[in-house]
Prior knowledge:
The protein contains eight helices and eleven strands. It has one domain: Jelly Rolls, CATH 2.60.120. The protein is of the alpha+beta class. The strands form two sheets. Strands 1, 2, 3, 5, 8, 10 and 11 form a seven-stranded antiparallel sheet that branches. Helix content is 30%, strand content 22%. The two termini are 33 Å apart.
Amino acid sequence: xxxxxxxxxxxxxxxxxxxxxxxxxxxxxxxxxxxxxxxxxxxxxxxxxxxxxxxxxxxxxxxxxxxxxxxxxxxxxxxxxxxxxxxxxxxxxxxxxxxxxxxxxxxxxxxxxxxxxxxxxxxxxxxxxxxxxxxxxxxxxxxxxxxxxxxxxxxxxxxxxxxxxxxxxxxxxxxxxxxxxxxxxxxxxxxxxxxxxxxxxxxxxxxxxxxxxxxxxxxxxxxxxxxxxxxxxxxxxxxxxxxxxxxxxxxxxxxxxxxxxxxxxxxxxxxxxxxxx
Length: 277
């Protein structure tokens, strides 16, 4: 292994220390953006590896203009770590998993699943939604790390957040669609929730909880918007009875072998970080 490769692996393990103010901000708003989580060498290495794997695994062959709203929004490849030991190093990063654990104030986190979200040049907007609509999980102790693999200006469609919107119950029954964009936007406006839409610097990573509403704009550039995400859950998370067909599908796909009412302790939901006494 080269010295550069060794330094990259060390960077993925090195703790990123959060301040009490940052943890308080996340707890209040249920999202946060953190600068300098990853260095340039890390991003360049995994940008290339993840891009190649997305190209290999992508089965979308419908022209962009003929797709529905969901499929215009992004190319989506999940659990890439199961297809590449090298990408697994990135997904299993203790540095990122520790941030997730510290933000949620839990004793450790498991992987729910990873997903690459590549928004093609000319790709459409991602409608307002809350991720946990799709997840058969017993509590809201969940957080997604959204990791751009390049600088992401507003024209490229970075993630937008509605601060404190985890407090809003309306819209939680809506999947990603034109309807969710219209209905949730209306409710957020009535609730006077702050909308946060900012560019991402290279190395900047955001974290958002499962019930905070978010969206992303269209990619108006001529470059692919390449993003890797990891979804974490409390290491003691239990499976709940699915409440819709999407949660049933997630149980069968991302929590294979888990039992309702029991901790989701399966081979594809490993603990990625635990606090030590």
